[in-house]
Amino acid sequence: MKTIIVIRLGRLGDVLLTSPVLKNLRFLYPESQILFITRSAYRSLAENLFGVNSVLTFPDEGSYLDLVKLSSELDEYQPDLVVDLHKNFRSFHLANLCKARYKVVYSKRRKERQAAVNDKKFRDYVPHTTDLYNFVIDKLKGKSYARRPDIILPEHLLIGKDSSRKGIAFCPGAGSIVKAWPIESYASLAERIIYDFRYEVHVNLSRKEELLEQKFEHLPKDMLSFHSGRPIMEIAGILSKMRLSVTNDSGLLHLSSAVATPTVALFGPTHQQLGFFPLGIHDIVLATDEKCRPCSLHGDKECSREEQYCFTRLTVDFVYEKIAERLEQLELKPAIFLDRDGTLIEDKHYLADPDKIEFIPGALETIKKLKELGYLIVIISNQSGVARGFFSSDDVERVHSRLWDLMIAADCEPDDVLFCPYHPDGDIAEFTRDHGWRKPHAGMIEDAAARMGIDVKRSFMIGDKLSDVQCGQVAGAMPILVKTGKGAKTVEEYPAEPYPKPYYICDTLADAGEFISQKCYEK
Questions:
Q1: So what's the pLDDT on residue 368?
Q2: What is the pLDDT of residue 107?
């Protein structure tokens, strides 16, 4: 595929939720040009989605004539594939007016969602909207590695002296007033957070919501900041520096999640069964168990009861308790996710003998330095030798036990060591399948992050293979490619532009450590 067109004309959250399928399209077609079509309000956001090369916009109130004009413009790109992630009148005609050889459309699951609203028929497994988008990858015979929303952020927000998370964000707006937790409840919650935790509260409002500021006027001005009508990427930057966000079911919910800020989502008339819940590793949804939920597909139907119990019973005390738990549980430390063979130790090709461990020169000293900088060290590796029958998982555990002992003796103990024994073409039935832990899947990173409270967005993935780089890209971490092991060959065979480069390429782990150290002290 030379040129791919992706269409999503919806609102902020809708556009953000396309980020996983865009990553997967980029992995599937590394050298294709990906053109994204959205509304003009979301151009800057679309330009910061992984894999997007250029953006065209469609007017908010565009006519059929505008569709024809845009389709003619698209024909100049000679698209091979059109991916319709909206599936409405405009996107349908736009996709069919342009002369692409192939067209794929996602399934909205509308019947199942309507059944959840009308008949309260709930399913044990509910595919998220990102899963529905990723079904497009299945149609194209590809693999879906990315599932969580993610956006590209400026380097200074992620590493350096001014990159730490310090405040609590409130996003009290919503597309419909029915979806908004009472502003008075937000104000009461802000007061408790300010006085109990001494965190500054940042309230994000649209221009239309500026009058809501008066609800917070009794709070200390030096502990309260209002951000009204800011551009989307500026809001993303603000949210990325927060310890936690509290949001309604809104576009800012997904923006907060996409910058990996732990997000507490307050759901009233909407429901997880509709497929729009937050997907971040540290995100949670708070809701009451009202039998009338969900009352509509989009949460915009006026409540028919004497009061809106889905919110009045979602009390400040309950929300405060859950927020306090999150703040106490999550340290949000950055980590170094480190490949094993060819990065930390010499690649001995299916290592099964603990006595043959040989550290790459400078590796142990580098790990010690990175730990002193505050990074957790998590070693993650694919060990397909188990699936292929070359050795057992117990053999891998013995190697890792010896690895651990050697690193402790060198005063650079790792915080965790994980491996994936699975491979889709293995010989041992128990381990013969694709698995979410096998890189470039990010399962090992996500598992460690969930258990250890890791801030993945401020973390690095260091390895010598393309799968290591892609694993970091899937997770939203900063990937560094080293030239030890298979790294020199990986650099030589790395996909050409427009495929995104690693965050950094260097000779050895020691060089990567020096680079990170320098960045940590930059302002």
A1: 98
A2: 86
pLDDT of residue 458: 97
How many C-beta neighbours within 10 Å does residue 330 have? 18
Q: Which residues contact 409 (CB under 8 A, 6 or more apart)?
A: none
What CA–CA distance (Å, rounded) separates 294 from 307? Answer: 15
Rg (alpha carbons) of the chain, rounded to whole number = 24
- Whether 250 and 172 have beta carbons less than 8 Å apart is answered as no
β-sheet with 201-205: strand ranges across: 224-228, 201-205, 167-171, 242-248, 263-266, 284-286
> What pLDDT, on the 0 to 100 scale, is given for residue 75?
87
Pairwise CA distance, residues 308 & 424, whole Å: 50
Helices 89-97 and 64-75, packing angle to 10 deg:
40
Beta carbons of 324 and 246 less than 8 angstroms apart? no
**In the chain, what is the greatest distance between 2 CA atoms, to the nearest angstrom?**
73
Structure confidence at residue 16 (pLDDT): 97
Q: Is residue 57 classed as helix, strand or coil in its secondary structure?
A: strand
How far is Cα 495 from Cα 295, in angstroms, rounded to an integer? 48
> pLDDT tens for residues 314-331?
999 999 999 999 999 998
One-character DSSP codes across 65-131: HHHHHHHHHHHTT--SEEEESS-SHHHHHHHHHS--SEEEE----HHHHHHHHHT----SS---HHH
Positions of the chain with pLDDT under 50: 523
| pLDDT reported for residue 308 | 96
Active-site choice (84, 150, 283, 341): 341
Residues ≥6 apart with Cβ < 8 Å to 288: 309, 310, 311, 313, 314
Q: At what angle do helices 19-28 and 129-139 cross, to 10 degrees?
A: 20
Angle, nearest 10°, between helix axes 232-240 and 251-258? 50
Task: Please tell me which residue in 14, 84, 150, 339 is annotated as part of the active site.
Answer: 339
Active site residue 300: no
> What pLDDT is attached to residue 53?
96
Whether 35 and 112 have beta carbons less than 8 Å apart is answered as no
Q: CA–CA separation, 309 vs 314, rounded Å? A: 8
CB within 8 Å of 438: residues ≥ 6 apart: 382, 384, 420, 422, 423
What DSSP element (H or E) covers 34? Answer: strand 33-39
289 part of the active site: no
What pLDDT does residue 67 have? 87
> How far lies 228's CA from each of 1, 68, 235, 242, in Å?
42, 36, 9, 17
| Residues 372, 374, 377, 378, Cα dihedral to 10° | 180
Q: Look at residue 212 in the predicted model and tell me its pLDDT.
A: 87
